[in-house]
Amino acid sequence: KHIWWVRAVNNFQYKPSKDRFGFQLVDISAPILAEPEDQSIICDGLPMMSWSSLNCFNKYKLIIADDEGFTNIIIDTLVSESSYTVLQSLSSPQTYYWKVSGVMESLLKTVYSDESDVYSFTIDIPSAPKLISPIMEAETVNSKPVFSWTEVDEADEYILEISSDSDFTSI
User: Fold this and answer.
1) Main-chain phi, psi angles of 69, to 5 degrees
2) Among 25-29, 40-44, 162-166, which stretch is predicted with the lowest mean pLDDT?
């Protein structure tokens, strides 16, 4: 914090002002983007975005677009934390671009930090397999039924879950 005042000088005499004002130099450097990492591929249409926090800034402006020039903005929001979870599912497969700037709001004016670098991420949610057998409501005496489903090109592996209730609370 710094204090300043002014003195008027005339013929080597001066009269100091009675007022003394304080001010603080604010670092307006840009936030550093953390997640999703640049050029990452994620399988969640509701990603959590995070970045470094900035001293003296009480809010952040997050912008997500589906083009590098930010002409088609998907999300433009002001948040009070250094993270944000997307609330409306983003399309897949689709590449998105994002950036953040700090915002300091006061009664006198609003100050913005520099904008962060632009990062991109791609939403790539694999297709869901279609169940083939056993068919719906099938009854079997086989204690080891064979399960089959359609193949999904993007899948590296499959996880088969079996439950006694339809909402899979007991697996």
Assistant:
1) -85, 0
2) 25-29
Q: Radius of gyration (Cα) for the chain, nearest Å?
A: 28
Q: Is 54 left (phi over 0), alpha (psi -120 to 50) or beta?
A: beta
Residue 87, token pair as written in the block: 């609330």
Helix, strand and coil percent figures for the chain, each rounded to 5: 0, 40, 60
- Burial (CB count within 10 angstroms: exposed 0-12, middle 13-18, buried 19+), residue 101: buried
What pLDDT, in 10s, does the model give residues 127-154? 888 888 888 877 877 778 888 888 887 7
Q: How far is CA 161 from CA 57, 68, 134, 166, in A?
A: 47, 40, 14, 11
